[in-house]
Amino acid sequence: MADIHTSAAAVFKPSNALSKVGPSAISRMMAATAELSRQGRDIVGLHVGEPDFDTPENIQEAAIKAMRAGDTHYTALDGSPAIKAAVREKGSVAKFS
After folding, report:
1. A biological process (GO) annotation for this entry (predicted)?
2. Is residue 47 part of a domain?
């Protein structure tokens, strides 16, 4: 009896078009940051969105408050008006602090 991998390979044969598809941009970014880290570079990878620390308590509480207020849907690609205003405010404060 064939193992599951052999039978899956026999059933699933990728099309020629699929064979021309390369690694995703995210995969390439992950590989590049991993390589730079191996070289001893101090890299902060912002491509996957999975930090190596827990979400700070104040951010957790703000998220819970927003969800309870019904703010549970996707925003425009460039963010909500409130977020953009907060980023502008933070940026102007940081410049002059």
Report:
1. amino acid metabolic process
2. no
Q: pLDDT tens digits for 28-55?
A: 988 998 999 999 998 877 777 777 788 9
**CA-CA distance, 94 to 97, in Å (whole number)?**
5
- Residue 68: C-alpha distances to residues 48, 56, 89 (Å): 27, 19, 25
Q: What is the pLDDT of residue 61?
A: 97
Domain count for the chain, please give it.
Answer: 1
Whether residue 87 is contained in a domain is answered as yes
CB 34, CB 28: distance < 8 Å? no
Do the domain assignments include residue 92?
Answer: yes
**Residue 66 domain-assigned (yes or no):** yes
Statement: residue 64 has pLDDT above 70: yes
> Is residue 67 a contact partner of residue 79, using CB atoms and an 8 Å limit?
no
What spatial distance separates the first Cα and last Cα of the chain, rounded to whole Å? Answer: 71
